[in-house]
Design a protein that fits this description.
Elements (H helix, E strand, L loop, with lengths): L12 H28 L7 H17 L23 E3 L8 E3 L2 H13 L8 E7 L2 E8 L2 E7 L5 E3 L2 H4 L17 E9 L2 H13 L8 H9 L4 H6 L3 E10 L8 H11 L8 E3 L2 H14 L7 E8 L2 H7 L1 E2 L2 E2 L2 E5 L3 E14 L4 E13 L2 E7 L3 H7 L2 E2 L2 E6 L6 E5 L10 E2 L13 E3 L6 E3 L5 H11 L12 H9 L16 H4 L7 H14 L4 H7 L7 H11 L2 H5 L3 H5 L6 H12 L1 H12 L19 E5 L7 H10 L3 E2 L9 E4 L6 H8 L2 E4 H13 L1
Helix pairs in contact: 1-2, 12-13, 16-17
Length: 688
């Protein structure tokens, strides 16, 4: 971890603050990227330990300089975004992440914080093996399993009900205490070691490529569109928490709730234990680490929770993590391999990042052939050279880091020192070093590598969602000079006669590509803002900007002070947004996008309605909106959309062929209105 600039009264305060601000910006960008790769793509690119270092470093910067905390900081919210193969699902309560402890000292510090912030100084703890699987949420209605979802980004996941039904240890029916009872349980789906071995043996016989680890195989199994494939994988699960309940199911202790769930027929891990002393917790963690290889499932640590539920409420949540729970992480797995070559990649902001090309090696159940080296200073600090034997480490299921070279194995005639290029490998422009941090960057804003990355981001599912614009196609179209800016995407059809002659651009491919481009013009304004790649602007910030400014014209002339007035947007984010729109080439881009017909305003009849945080759900088919358009409408007007019926819901809006949600809502006494009544409700809100 880098050293954090201290806050003091010396004359160098300003430079320290500037350095801290720049480093925080970089860390947030890194963490957001790695969250996306880990949670959305299931293709992580850094190891657990490196990711944890990034997060701890950012948290320390924000502790020393609290004015640098931004609304979209990974420390302030649960990370991460859902995939799109399945319908989205909004959790009634966030599925939180956990802070980490890597040794006894860190666990004792957490224990002290818990006791210092609790009215009750006698704390019991519940210890649970940290299963290396996929977090899931299960909904039961009157004793029947009715819906299930993945964790996703903590707020929104994927509805994988059909696939979860195939898990034999999941009870499809339990004895309900009342006919109207609706409750949620949370747990971890996983693939046992023996089942993983069986699947790979079958793949050997079929001469198919082997799966690399059980965790990714389990995640991929639950994301199969065909439940028959999921069923063939024989997944398993453990339940670790009772969520919300429509009835007053009172428990004083977490351990009692687990015992109640076990009696109901839910699989609870038999290794879960309760302790009254923190030293007993440490002993448990150390013993379980020694025992992990003998278990028939993968674990990467221990989850420690405060047992008393009232104390849990008192302690609350800090940003993305509950204060009443922590994960003791086992040491990272390591392996030795050859560092074959050091190369560089260019990001959409021009930052040049060196990475290691490695002789493939298995670490933590995954084949590793590349690892980021972060920056030139990092390479110098480790004294890494191409040709070195190096130690690679990988914690759990996340991507590796190069720990160190094995100097005893180094033969000077067989290794090569790395020198950061002085000119950009893509455009030959001068490479400069950022004075505020260790990053090198290409000085040419028209660099083809930057533009292709910008286009890839703009067209991604997170932003404008243009199918067919992946990394390779973006790079190819830029290199062929068909695309030189984001606006060129929308004039690509003018090059049909040239494109049709190229390999891989048949008539059907081009037709689908052009349809996707044209459809993207209808994307809501918040998606466009994300696509522009403004630093610090994620989903939530984009939504707040649209809610406040209504159209892009208003936003482009807003000052940083204007933007900072919005609750939830800090000064750093406001300055970044105002700076983006002050740049001439960005102003030119916005004008072009407007002329090309993109949606640059809230394109709905009612733009001033304020739903004031009310929670809405829907069922059936609407005349006016699709399901996703209804969700976007609710969010844009300050409300919250839910896919489940809970007692927290304010309104259920139904259309034609409304389903069983209507009966569920009636049982809970929720307001139920039809589509026309909802439109009238919005009109009244507008006139109010």
């Amino acid at each position: 971890m880098k050293s954090i600039p201290s806050k003091n009264n010396s004359t160098s305060d300003l430079s320290r603050h500037t350095a801290a601000s720049a480093r925080a910006v970089k860390l947030r960008e890194l963490i957001h990227v790695h969250d996306y790769q880990y949670y959305v793509l299931n293709s992580p690119t850094v190891g657990d330990s490196q990711y944890d270092n990034f997060l701890e470093e950012l948290r320390e910067i924000e502790r020393i300089f609290p004015e640098l905390i931004t609304n979209d900081s990974p420390t302030q919210r649960v990370s991460g975004e859902p995939l799109t193969e399945f319908n989205t699902y909004t959790h009634s309560e966030p599925m939180l992440s956990l802070a980490n402890a890597f040794n006894k000292e860190e666990l004792l510090k957490w224990d002290k914080r818990v006791k210092d912030n609790s009215e009750n100084k006698k704390i019991d703890y519940v210890c649970e093996p940290k299963i290396d699987g996929l977090a899931i949420s299960l909904i039961y209605n009157s004793g029947i399993f009715s819906q299930g979802a993945t964790r996703g980004d903590g707020q929104t996941g994927e509805d994988i009900t059909a696939n979860l039904r195939t898990i034999r240890t999941l009870p499809l029916r339990i004895k309900a205490d009342t006919t109207s009872e609706i409750f949620e349980v949370r747990g971890e789906a996983y693939l046992s070691k023996s089942e993983f071995e069986r699947i790979n043996q079958e793949r050997i016989k079929a001469e198919e490529q082997l799966y690399m680890n059980a965790r990714n195989t389990a995640a991929g199994s639950l994301r199969q569109l065909d439940p028959k494939i999921t069923a063939s994988r024989k997944l398993n699960m453990f339940i670790y928490q009772l969520g919300y309940s429509s009835e007053t199911q009172e428990f004083d202790y977490h351990f009692d709730a687990l015992q109640w769930l076990q009696k109901k027929g839910f699989p609870i891990n038999p290794l879960i234990k309760k302790f009254t002393k923190i030293d007993e917790v440490v002993d448990y963690c150390e013993k379980l680490e020694k025992q992990r290889d003998s278990l028939n499932y993968d674990i990467d640590g221990v989850v420690i929770k405060v047992n008393n539920l009232q104390i849990q409420k008192q302690l609350g949540v800090a940003g993305r993590e509950p204060r009443w729970a922590i994960a003791w992480k086992f040491p990272a797995e390591q392996a030795v391999t050859k560092l074959q070559k050091i190369e560089v990649s260019i990001g959409r902001t021009g930052v040049i990042t060196p990475y290691a090309k490695l002789e493939p090696v298995i670490v933590g159940g995954a084949k590793i052939s590349m690892a980021t080296l972060h920056n030139f200073d990092h390479i110098q600090k480790l004294d890494l050279r191409a040709g070195d034997d190096v130690i690679i480490q990988r914690a759990g299921d996340v991507i590796p880091q190069v720990v160190a070279p094995i100097l005893a194995n180094r033969k000077l005639g067989n290794v090569t020192q790395f020198m950061m290029p002085t000119t950009c490998p893509s455009c030959n422009s001068t490479v400069k070093k950022d004075l505020d941090n260790a990053a090198h960057y290409c000085s040419n804003s028209a660099c083809p590598a930057q533009i292709s990355r910008q286009i890839e981001h703009f067209a991604s599912k997170t932003a404008m969602d243009i199918e067919g614009f992946g990394e390779e196609r973006s790079k190819e179209l830029v290199n062929l000079n068909f695309l030189r800016s984001l606006a060129d995407i929308y004039t690509l059809k003018n090059h049909y006669s040239e494109l049709i002659e190229l390999p891989g651009y048949g008539e059907k491919t081009l037709k689908n590509l052009f349809i996707g481009i044209e459809e993207s013009k209808k994307q809501p304004l918040e998606k466009l803002l994300i696509g522009l790649g403004i630093r610090h602007v994620g989903n939530e910030t984009a939504r707040l900007l649209v809610q406040s400014f209504k159209n892009l014209d208003n936003l482009t002339i807003a000052t940083a002070d204007d933007i900072a007035q919005i609750q939830g947007i800090g000064n750093v984010t406001a300055n970044s947004i105002a700076h983006f729109f002050s740049i001439d080439r960005n102003q030119h881009l916005i004008k072009n996008l407007l002329d090309l017909g993109l949606n640059t305003s809230v394109n709905r009849q009612i733009i001033d309605g304020d739903l004031n945080g009310l929670i809405f759900a829907c069922t059936g088919k609407f005349k006016t909106w699709s399901r996703s358009e209804f969700e976007n409408l609710i969010n844009s007007l300050g409300g919250r959309y839910s896919r489940t019926i809970t007692k927290q819901l304010d309104y259920l809006v139904f259309g034609v062929d409304g389903g069983k949600k209507i009966e569920q809502a009636k049982a809970l006494g929720i307001n139920i209105i039809n589509e026309d009544e909802f439109i009238n409700y919005l009109a009244k809100q507008k006139d109010a």
